[in-house]
């Protein structure tokens, strides 16, 4: 009976050492849409994670002035979170802060940024104006000059470099806590093994 207990404890120690990912597992962001820069209309933001998520998430989208953009809905399906905006984002830089809980109840949080640069569609309206001039008298020989209007539309949106996506998570806090838990469990198990061997002697 004692030998069986020792074998179980030793097996537990080896499993913790060989597979630390079991206790250090955490959710992390894999990819986003948009990523760093979008030249098309943005009506929703999609985030892909490395593991299945719980059914709750908190997403906040703010512009460069710190104004939060209204969300119409937040959808979670498997590893994907989709934040649907009330209206399309205008050109500018934005930051997304997220908080999630994985299916195994591990919390996670982080943020990333992107820039929206949708090209302006130039619409030119052709002038439709007709002028009737009275016939000139033979004694008047003043030439009629037609005004030439030259319009050179310049729509140059200031382009700013897309800020590097910054994905931060609570991984470090979870890893530190889990590492201490691993060390504590190993110490307890080694102590139990030592006591058992002493009793046998």
From TrEMBL:
Using the UniProt record, give the first listed, main subcellular location. Answer: other
Q: Kindly list the places in or outside the cell where this protein is found, as annotated in its UniProt entry.
A: Cell envelope
Question: Which residues are the signal sequence here?
Answer: none
Q: Where is this region: Disordered?
A: 125-167
Renumbered to this chain, the Low complexity biased-composition regions fall at: 125-165
In this chain the CopC domain maps to 26-116
Q: Which InterPro entries match?
A: CopC/D, CopC_dom, Cu-Rt/internalin_Ig-like, Ig_E-set
Q: What does the entry list under GO cellular component? A: cell envelope; periplasmic space; plasma membrane
Name the keywords, alphabetized: Copper, Membrane, Metal-binding, Signal, Transmembrane, Transmembrane helix
**Record-annotated membrane-spanning stretches:** 177-197
Output the GO biological process annotations, alphabetical, semicolon-separated.
Answer: copper ion transport; response to copper ion
Select a single GO molecular function from the record's annotations and give it.
copper ion binding
Protein name according to UniProt = Copper resistance protein CopC
Lineage of the species this protein comes from: Bacteria, Bacillati, Bacillota, Bacilli, Bacillales
């Amino acid at each position: 009976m004692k030998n069986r207990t020792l074998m179980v404890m030793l097996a537990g120690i080896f499993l913790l050492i060989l597979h630390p990912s079991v206790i250090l597992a955490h959710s992390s962001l894999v990819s986003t849409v948009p990523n760093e820069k979008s030249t098309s209309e943005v009506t929703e933001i999609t985030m892909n994670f490395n593991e299945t998520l719980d059914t709750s998430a908190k997403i906040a989208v703010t512009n460069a002035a710190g104004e939060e953009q209204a969300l119409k809905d937040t959808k979670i399906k498997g590893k994907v979170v989709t934040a649907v905006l009330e209206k399309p984002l205008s050109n500018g830089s934005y930051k997304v802060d997220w908080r999630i809980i994985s299916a195994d109840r591990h919390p996670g949080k982080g943020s990333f940024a992107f820039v929206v640069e949708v090209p302006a569609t130039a619409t030119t309206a052709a002038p439709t104006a007709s002028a009737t001039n009275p016939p000139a008298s033979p004694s008047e020989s003043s030439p009629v000059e037609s005004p030439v209007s030259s319009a050179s539309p310049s729509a140059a949106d200031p382009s700013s470099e897309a800020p590097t996506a910054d994905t931060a998570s609570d991984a470090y806090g979870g890893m530190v806590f889990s590492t201490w838990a691993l060390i504590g469990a190993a110490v307890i198990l080694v102590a139990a093994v030592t006591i058992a061997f002493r009793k046998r002697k």
